From TrEMBL:
<dbReference type="InterPro" id="IPR024370">
    <property type="entry name" value="PBP_domain"/>
</dbReference>
<comment type="similarity">
    <text>Belongs to the PstS family.</text>
</comment>
<dbReference type="InterPro" id="IPR005673">
    <property type="entry name" value="ABC_phos-bd_PstS"/>
</dbReference>
<feature type="signal peptide">
    <location>
        <begin position="1"/>
        <end position="27"/>
    </location>
</feature>
<dbReference type="InterPro" id="IPR050962">
    <property type="entry name" value="Phosphate-bind_PstS"/>
</dbReference>
<feature type="domain" description="PBP">
    <location>
        <begin position="54"/>
        <end position="345"/>
    </location>
</feature>
<dbReference type="Pfam" id="PF12849">
    <property type="entry name" value="PBP_like_2"/>
</dbReference>
<keyword id="KW-0732">Signal</keyword>
<keyword id="KW-0592">Phosphate transport</keyword>
<keyword id="KW-0813">Transport</keyword>
<protein>
    <recommendedName>
        <fullName>Phosphate-binding protein</fullName>
    </recommendedName>
</protein>
Length: 376
């Protein structure tokens, strides 16, 4: 946890430095062979390369999972590309996809890839093309908890499934005690929180539970919370806020929310040599094994939620930016390409680990950048 808190502080510092984002954005890729007096010219040239012909307002919406990353990206990007105003509405994956397929945003953020019916619907907006998934943000879904007197907690997939399915109701249940023999677990009711709206984070948690605890989690992995009981809150921020306030609570949200609010997180017993902590590095180990399952320009990924590899944190998500491969609106296309080129670029991806996320594996990320260049 000390490492994660340190990362959170570093991420805050990065946000504070966003006003000097030109320094970040203009560091793209080449050795500095200019004389001191040429620094302004070099910065101007790099800025022109990043911003290209982008101008005007770019609206986007969707996943709250990437909100903290998006906040950093937008500040840094707009500090250099002063002619572009990027507005990202953090809501949910479901709402983002609806907005995209209604043509009201330049791109959408979603923690799960488009379904076939959503791709079919996108063809009405993407004239001559369709919506595609570009993996942009990776990271762990932290299981945060608030249990007075317990600062180190280990759970496994079957136990988590039973907790979120309202089958394990108290913190001193034998299954939890077995995983935490050195902890003093109180006879306190578990207050489990889940997302109230359609959420890709919910769907990814469901994929993990379905893969790693198939006999205990019988629900389909959908964006809508499927299990009875529990308490609902809006957005990852809402779930994190409830867990922060309520003793005896547990919930799920992206690691950055746990880090920023100093919420302890569960270590997951995957069957590896040791329980695995939710961290950017550990999530990266799991995401690195992902395979591209999309076809054509679509880069949707297949993740291994049941991994037992040492140090691989299994409850992960990848947030996609959803765009048209063809048929993007002419007035926003330059801004879409410019902004996504930055977020997928070296500097944009570097910010992710600082903010508690995991960069997209280099081989996949190279394909994302190439696809962004070809958007039309």
């Amino acid at each position: 946890m000390k490492l994660q808190r340190k990362n959170g502080l570093r991420a805050t510092a990065l946000g504070a430095l966003a006003v000097s984002g030109a320094l970040v954005l203009t560091a793209c890729g080449s050795d500095d062979n200019t004389a001191p007096g040429d620094s302004g010219t070099k910065a101007s040239a790099a800025s022109k390369e990043v911003c290209a012909d982008a101008k005007g307002q770019l609206r986007a919406s969707g996943s709250s999972a990437q909100k903290n990353a998006m906040d950093l990206w937008v500040k840094n990007y707009m500090a250099t590309c002063t002619g572009v105003e990027v507005n990202y509405k953090s809501s949910s994956s479901g709402e983002g996809i609806v907005a995209f397929n209604q043509g009201t945003v330049g791109f959408a953020g979603s923690d799960s890839a488009l379904k076939p019916e959503e791709v079919a619907e996108s063809k009405q907006i993407c004239k001559g093309g369709q919506g595609i998934n570009l993996p942009m943000v990776g990271g762990p879904i932290a299981i945060g908890y608030h249990l007075q007197g317990v600062d180190n907690l280990v759970l496994d997939a079957p136990t988590l499934a039973k907790i979120f399915d309202n089958k394990i109701k108290n913190w001193n249940d034998e299954a939890i005690k077995k995983l935490n023999p050195d902890a003093t677990l109180p006879n306190k009711q578990i207050q489990a929180f889940h997302r109230s709206e359609d959420s890709g984070t919910t769907q990814n948690l469901g994929k993990y539970l379905g893969a790693a605890a198939a006999s205990d989690w019988k629900y389909e992995a959908e964006k809508k919370w499927p299990a009875p009981g529990g308490q609902a809150a809006s957005g990852s921020s809402g779930v994190a806020s409830q867990v922060k306030q309520v003793d005896g609570s547990i919930g799920y949200f992206e690691l950055s929310y746990a880090t920023s609010q100093k919420i302890p997180t569960v270590k997951i017993d995957t069957g590896a040599s040791a329980p695995v902590e939710a961290s950017s590095a550990n999530a990266s180990k799991a995401i690195a094994a992902a395979k591209i399952k999309g076809t054509g320009k679509d880069l949707a990924l297949d993740l291994d939620y049941a991994t037992k590899a040492d140090g691989a944190y299994p409850i992960v998500l990848v947030t996609y930016e959803i765009v048209c491969d063809k048929g993007n609106k002419a007035e926003t296309l330059p801004a879409v390409k410019s902004f996504l080129n930055y977020t997928a670029g070296e500097d944009g991806q570097k910010l992710l680990s600082e903010a508690g996320y995991a960069p997209i594996p280099a081989e996949i990320n190279a394909k994302v950048r190439e696809t962004v260049k070809g958007l039309s």
